[in-house]
Design goal:
Elements: E1 12-21, E2 50-51, H1 53-67, H2 70-77, E3 91-93, E4 96-104, E5 110-115, H3 116-126, E6 147-149, E7 162-165, E8 168-174, H4 177-187, H5 191-200, E9 201-204, H6 206-215, E10 218-222, E11 238-242, E12 248-256, H7 267-276, E13 281-283, E14 294-299
Parallel strand pairs: 5-9, 6-8
Antiparallel strand pairs: 1-12, 1-14, 2-4, 3-12, 4-5, 4-12, 6-9, 7-8, 10-11, 13-14
Helix pairs in contact: 1-2, 4-5
């Protein structure tokens, strides 16, 4: 009978990584055949925007390579491509999923909208984060189509219990205080943004939310000029889709024991390295030279938040 070699057990530490867009964001999906030449990436089954985990990990990898010790970032993110066969990195990231989407409001400037499907998926993902402080209390009842949940004192309300988002009117049927409090305390660090999230978060029906994330993105016309004639070069007009500033995403981050030979760092140490060296802002997606894609980042275990 052939002998079997036992594989040492490894530990895993999981946290949420929040992304808050400070400028327009273009996580591109390549060229499309429709009216929009450069659309954003979306989930196939929901058509909700996403940021691929591979892109997010690559951006963080580059940021840590610039900031930290060579051995540390290689242990966390893995070696360069030429040495990829030596070992895998200790960190894994999921695709960044939409948490709240900014929509123009008749009053209060804009609202962050979310929905039952987003929040129940978040609650399911939180089961992978072993911290009681991360538990999310969902509303006892959910809004029907053309209805909404928001704070009774929200500056978004018109005539007492109406909201007008884009060209659509919604009737307030309850509040989502617990959800707004949870998001504001964990997703952002900025004090003013925390207060704004508390009063401007709105829970909609799934279909209403999906309409906004499909059709309320920014469509920007881009051109290329002939340097001599100062006119548009032939074929140089194209349309690009971007997510608006203030969009909120979250990703699950998994830290494992080091896989690098000779390195004995455990998962908690890897997660601490990620936390202690996390840059306050990273740049995601295309057109970084034009200022697009600036996102504030925060781990759910960051000191100063609600623990």
């Amino acid at each position: 009978m052939a002998e079997t070699t036992a594989t040492p057990a490894t530990s895993t530490v999981t946290e949420l990584l929040f992304l808050h867009a400070q400028t327009s964001l273009h996580p591109g999906s390549g060229t499309a055949l429709g009216v929009v030449d450069l659309p954003i990436q979306r989930e196939r089954h929901t058509q909700w925007p996403i940021i691929p985990g591979s892109s997010l990990k690559g951006i963080l990898r580059d940021a840590y390579r610039r900031r930290g010790n060579d051995d540390d970032w290689i242990t966390a993110f893995g070696p360069e491509t030429a040495d990829a066969d030596k070992h895998a990195g200790a960190l894994s990231l999921t695709d960044a999923r939409i948490l709240a989407f900014p929509v123009r409001s008749l009053r209060g400037v804009f609202a962050w909208v979310t929905c039952k499907a987003v929040l129940t998926r978040l609650q399911r993902d939180l089961k992978l984060v072993p911290s009681k402080s991360n538990s999310l209390i969902l509303p006892q009842s959910w809004p029907d189509k053309d209805k909404a949940l928001c704070q009774q004192s929200a500056p978004l309300l018109v005539d007492g219990n109406k909201l007008v988002l884009e060209e659509f009117e919604f009737e307030r049927t309850g509040d989502a205080k617990e959800v707004a409090c949870w998001v504001s305390h964990r997703a952002v660090d900025d004090k003013a943004t925390k207060e704004l999230l508390n009063s401007h978060l709105v829970v909609l029906h799934d279909d209403d939310f999906t309409h906004f994330v499909r059709h309320a993105t920014e469509i920007v016309a881009r051109i290329g000029l002939d340097p001599e004639k100062k006119t548009v070069r032939e074929g140089a007009l194209f349309y690009q889709e971007c997510l608006p500033p203030e969009t909120l995403f979250y990703s699950l981050v998994f830290a494992n024991d080091s896989r690098k030979q000779g390195c004995k760092k455990k998962a908690p140490e890897i997660m601490s390295y990620l936390q202690n060296n996390l840059p306050p802002v990273i740049q995601i997606g295309g057109d970084e030279t034009t200022g697009k894609g600036l996102c504030a980042v925060k781990l759910s275990n960051k000191k100063g938040g609600v623990q």
